[in-house]
Write a structure and sequence with these properties.
554 residues, alpha+beta
């Protein structure tokens, strides 16, 4: 599959980021340029405004592909670039497959900083000396990543806890590098060769991901919420947090004694039970509750000494909103019903189109690539493979899929890798099918349809109230910008049709709302015939608004 992302070689012109070469940013920019050049990325280094030295001494390494050299450079450049690489790995709908596969190899375990440097962070964050909050505190970190490291400690009441501490000065370093990436993305987005690729959106997503990893309150909230999902499940363990000891820089949670899944041998007798429990718990998070662990890596799942499966490190989670789960249920229904057009509509709904959506072309791609899945019962659908195919099709049609949907797909693929390694005979689909069936039933229930109709009606009423203000503003701008309007006359027909269509939907929404009120009044008055008639009319109008049926006025 050809990616829409422009090659560095395809971008003509000089340095993309000359505005970045300020006295404040120049030293870091020079460091980045040297690292890129040293790993055979001289072309990219030049685009970053590298000096003559890197252009002369940089070299191309034909034995390592571009994606591999970029991964090595990211590894050397530190936290921000490691996270950027991990973000690339999580977006197969945006980036080429070879780059995604290479970035999945990025390692985020680094040497810890000394306890003497970390101790002031803990004490300043908690507002006192360590011995005031902990009976015992091990000074050797048990784990270290690019942004934080973890220690084992004992609370004053004797509880064994894990203390996650943000590394000193990491916020300043991240802010500096994010500033560089912001400006580089803006410069790249102005290149005509960028096509449907939106580098600004990618860096914006990196901002959001780092917000969750830098602010431990957000991770704590995710842990606390997901823990409620399994309060009555004796096989699943989610760590308890200690609110009085948690801050934005320090996260204190229950210590788990156990072995990481990644350290289990493939002949371990516990592996089959672990695979089953991990699969069930992840599916429950996703499809029943809509908030899930988005990085089910073997190092983030423990087999505890008491026989439970324990989940740790909730720095990266995913959200499947009620609407996304509803869209997923519609996708699954359309698969079973062999409805290509409905599946295409739902793919458009779960993403953002760069340009006009060509529903016909998308439907043809779905018919060609997903035909083996269509008509199958849910028990026979390989969901991870199906979702990967949908992401690939969306990429071809310049549709950027919602992050929650993408994170769900990546998490399922990671889980599938764990299953293949430790219990290849495990039928993931059989464990998944009951929850998918439950999701389809829940989202197809009459009360769910009623809720969506109500929400749509309220949105239409709100839009109807705003229409006069918007029309007045549009007329005012058109009057003041007559020359601009005349210069863009070729696009007015399409704009006019869209405004006309929106106006009709607003009118239909207003009529439907009035009919609902009238039906209620007639029903209260005992005039059931009139109530039924008004109800049928409102139902017809709302159905056309909700599903985009063609209006008889068109």
């Amino acid at each position: 599959m050809r990616s829409s992302i422009p090659s560095i070689r395809e971008i003509d012109g000089g340095s993309l980021v000359k505005p970045l070469q300020t006295l404040r940013n120049l030293p870091r920019l020079r460091d980045i340029s040297w690292v890129l050049a040293r790993h055979g990325l001289k072309d990219l280094s030049t685009r970053l405004g590298a000096g003559l030295g890197t252009r002369i001494f940089g070299f191309e390494n034909p034995h390592i592909p571009f994606a591999g050299r970029l991964r090595l450079a990211f590894q050397e450049l530190g936290p921000i670039y490691i996270k950027l690489g991990q973000l690339i790995a999580s977006r197969p709908d945006v980036f080429p497959e070879d780059l995604v596969n290479e970035m999945e190899r990025l390692r985020d375990d680094v040497d810890p900083v000394s306890f003497d440097e970390v101790k002031p962070v803990i004490e300043k964050s908690l507002g006192g000396e360590i011995h005031e909050y902990f009976r015992q505190f091990d000074e050797v970190a048990v784990a270290s990543a690019s942004i934080a490291q973890v220690y084992r400690a004992t609370t004053l009441d004797g509880r064994s806890v894990a203390v996650k501490v943000r590394k000193p000065g990491i916020g300043v370093l991240i802010e500096r590098d994010l500033g560089l990436l912001d400006q580089f993305a803006e410069a790249l987005s102005r290149q005509p060769e960028s096509g449907g690729f939106d580098p600004v959106a990618v860096v914006r997503e990196l901002h959001h991901a780092l917000d969750g990893e830098l602010n431990f309150f957000m991770e704590k909230n995710s842990i606390d919420r997901i823990r409620t999902f399994f309060e009555d499940d004796p096989a699943i363990a989610i760590p308890e947090t200690f609110p009085d000891l948690c801050t934005g820089e320090v996260l204190v949670m229950e210590w788990f004694d156990g072995i990481p899944v990644g350290k289990m041998t493939i002949d371990d007798p516990r592996r089959q039970e672990l695979v089953r429990v991990c699969s069930r718990s992840l599916f429950t998070m996703m499809f029943r509750h809509g908030h899930f662990h988005a990085d089910p890596h073997p190092s983030n799942i423990l087999w505890l000494d008491d026989g439970r499966a324990g989940w740790i490190d909730f720095g990266l989670t995913g959200i499947l909103t009620s609407d996304l789960r509803w869209r997923l249920s519609r996708m699954l229904n359309s698969l079973v019903d062999r409805d290509y057009e409905e599946l295409a509509r739902q793919v458009i709904h779960v993403g953002h189109c760069h340009g006009e959506a060509n529903t016909f072309a998308l439907t043809q791609s779905i018919a060609q690539h997903l035909d083996p899945y269509l008509g199958l019962p849910l028990s026979n659908v390989d969901l991870p493979a199906l979702l990967k195919s949908i992401l690939q099709i969306a990429t071809e049609h310049r549709i950027e899929i919602a992050p929650g949907f993408v994170r769900m797909t990546r998490a399922l693929v990671l889980l599938e890798g764990l299953v293949e390694k430790y219990d290849p005979d495990f039928d993931m689909t059989s464990e998944l099918e009951p929850l998918l069936q439950e999701l389809v039933r829940e989202k197809s229930a009459p009360d769910e349809w009623a809720r969506r109709l109500t929400d749509q009606t309220l949105e239409n009423l709100e839009a109807l109230g705003e229409a006069p203000v918007l029309l007045t503003e549009a007329l005012r701008r058109a009057t003041r910008g007559r020359i601009r309007v005349e210069s863009e006359i070729t696009g007015l027909d399409r704009l006019s049709r869209r405004i006309e269509g929106a106006s009709r939907r607003l009118v239909e929404g207003g009529i439907a709302s009035a009919m609902i009120v009238a039906a209620a009044l007639f029903a209260i008055s005992g005039m059931t015939g009139f109530a039924l008639g008004c109800g049928l009319i409102s139902g017809f109008l709302l159905s056309r608004i909700l599903f985009g049926y063609l209006s008889p006025w068109q």
